[in-house]
Every structure is written in structure tokens, then in C-alpha cells.
């Protein structure tokens, strides 16, 4: 286990979580993007969330991490309802529960150097060792496959795969217990996708962090997740152990997804 690594200590329980949007974009109508979703993710586990574009996966992830207010429901972690915590008391939970986004090009400030981006967690979260942060960063980046010479480059000068490595290394400086991975590889070339998924797996083995892994890719989820949930139009239609759900789906929509996916691959 990594020195000072944070082992996930609790099961994250999402209970009856919903989100409705009312906006001018919807011409005054209400749209239920997430509809009464309940799921649980155990310590050190990867839960795969699958569903077509627009079914509410990112909205669910953003509510769990408190980037978006929920309309109703609870997100229990370590005995606390995260949705009940006032913003001013959220900082310690923001460290423990993190999110990695799909778009490498917007994940880091393109004008900042990689080193400056990696310094940010120390400054924003007042991490111990702040006075030695450059030394800590240089020792920290190696297992993430980040070459020391990258530290002086600007984010705009590094590839998408390298950015995901840097963002993950930056998140892991905070020793989070839980990360929402929102399509972490969908913008990357296939060969780089496999490297990033492998890195995520290695990080999980080393630190015990839990993941909610959001993806359109059934093969990727089958490989990476111990449990899987299938979302459709805001609802979680079916969930369970990955092999059980994919080998014997009970919902017709899941069967159709699996058939379409096999067809696309053949
Ligand atoms: N801020 C918003 N205002 C109004 N509607 C929104 C807003 N954010 C998301 N939506 C709508 O909520 C629904 C769910 O969106 P969401 O981004 O969660 O889907 P998704 O499954 O993550 O899709 P994708 O795989 O394409 O990222 C969509 O219909 C989307 O248009």
C-alpha cells in the first residue's frame, strides 16, 4: 500500500436520488434527468455505470460529488448524508470524494505548468508537507508514468493521455477514498485507453480507493467493474454483479444493449 495511502473506509450509499431540471432551454418544462436511483459502492470496489448518452450518468456523478445540487434523495458516506453538509463544511469531504472528467483539454489550466497544477492540491487543501511540496510531487509522479521533464511544460503542450495521468496524480495527492470516473478514456486513442485503465486499476490496488466508473463501453465495464448498473432515461433499470447481469440480464433493455454491443464489435 502507498505510503500515506487512504484506504476507503466506508460504503457509499446513494438512496432514492433524483434530479429535475427546469430551464428556459426546456421551454419551461421539467426534465427528470435522474429518477429515484439507489445503489451502493463498497470500499475498494469499482461500480460500472452504463447507459446511452443523455440517460443521466454524469448528472448522478455530479450530485454524488456535490458539484450539482440534488432535487431529492440522500448520499450516505461514513454515516453522513453528504447532501446535508453545508458548503462551508464540505472541504474535508471534497478531499475524500473526487471526480475525474472525460475531457482532458478542459481538466487542467492550459497556461499553467504541470508542476503548478500539481501544486494546487497543497495550496487549496492546505496539505501537510506544503513547504516540501515540489519534492513530494517529484517522488509522487513516478508510478503515474509522468516523466519529470513534463513538470515544466504547460498543460497545452502535453497529450490527452498524459493529462489524464497528471489529473489522476493530482487527485491522488489528496488521498481520496472515492472517485467518480466520468468516461475517463472516451476521448483517448484505443491503445492509450488501455494504459489509463491499467493505471486506474494499479492505483486502486495500491491505495484501496473506490470508483464509480461511468462509461458507454460494455467491454471496458465488464473488465473493470465488480458490479454494474444499467441506466435508461434517468432510471437504474438493473444492477448486480457484473458477470451475473451481463450473462443473464433480466431487463429487455439490458438484453438489447448487450446484443447491440456484440453486433458492433463483430
Ligand atoms: N444543466 C442542465 N439543464 C438542463 N438539462 C440538463 C442539464 N444538465 C444535463 N441536462 C439534461 O439531463 C439529461 C442527462 O444528462 P447527463 O449529462 O447526465 O447524461 P449522460 O448519461 O451523462 O450523457 P453523456 O453520456 O452524453 O455524457 C440530458 O437530457 C441532459 O440534456
Automatic annotation (TrEMBL):
An example Gene Ontology molecular-function term: ATP hydrolysis activity
Keyword Transport: yes
Any matching Pfam family: ABC_tran
EC number per UniProt: 3.6.3.-
InterPro entries: AAA+_ATPase, ABC_transp_ATP-bind, ABC_transporter-like_ATP-bd, ABC_transporter-like_CS, P-loop_NTPase
PROSITE patterns from the UniProt entry: ABC_TRANSPORTER_1, ABC_TRANSPORTER_2
Superkingdom to which the source organism belongs: Bacteria
Occurrences of domain ABC transporter (ranges): 12-258
GO BP annotation list: transmembrane transport
UniProt record similarity statement: Belongs to the ABC transporter superfamily.
Stated name of the protein: ATP-binding cassette domain-containing protein
Amino acid at each position: 500500500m502507498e505510503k500515506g495511502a487512504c484506504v476507503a473506509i466506508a460504503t457509499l450509499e446513494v438512496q432514492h436520488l433524483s434530479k429535475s431540471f427546469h430551464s428556459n432551454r426546456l421551454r419551461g418544462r421539467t426534465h427528470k434527468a435522474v429518477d429515484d436511483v439507489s445503489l451502493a459502492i463498497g470500499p475498494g470496489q469499482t461500480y460500472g455505470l452504463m447507459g446511452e448518452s443523455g440517460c443521466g450518468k454524469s448528472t448522478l456523478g455530479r450530485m454524488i460529488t456535490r458539484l450539482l445540487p440534488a432535487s431529492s434523495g440522500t448520499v450516505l458516506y461514513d454515516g453522513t448524508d453528504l447532501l446535508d453538509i453545508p458548503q462551508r463544511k464540505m472541504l474535508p469531504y471534497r478531499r475524500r470524494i473526487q471526480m475525474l472528467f472525460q475531457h482532458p483539454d478542459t481538466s487542467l489550466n492550459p497556461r499553467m505548468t504541470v508542476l503548478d497544477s500539481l501544486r494546487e492540491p497543497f495550496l487549496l487543501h492546505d496539505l501537510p508537507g506544503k513547504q516540501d511540496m515540489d519534492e513530494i510531487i517529484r517522488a509522487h509522479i513516478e508510478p503515474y508514468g509522468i516523466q519529470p521533464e513534463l513538470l515544466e511544460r504547460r498543460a497545452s503542450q502535453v497529450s490527452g493521455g498524459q493529462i489524464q495521468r497528471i489529473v489522476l496524480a493530482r487527485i491522488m495527492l489528496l488521498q481520496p477514498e472515492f472517485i467518480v470516473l466520468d468516461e475517463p478514456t472516451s476521448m483517448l486513442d484505443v491503445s492509450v485507453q488501455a494504459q489509463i485503465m491499467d493505471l486506474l486499476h494499479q492505483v486502486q490496488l495500491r491505495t484501496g480507493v473506490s470508483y464509480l466508473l461511468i462509461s458507454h463501453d460494455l467491454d471496458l465495464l465488464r473488465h473493470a467493474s465488480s458490479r454494474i448498473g444499467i441506466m435508461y432515461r434517468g432510471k437504474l433499470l438493473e444492477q448486480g454483479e457484473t458477470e451475473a447481469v451481463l450473462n443473464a440480464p433480466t431487463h429487455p433493455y439490458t438484453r438489447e444493449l448487450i446484443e447491440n454491443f456484440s453486433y458492433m464489435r463483430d
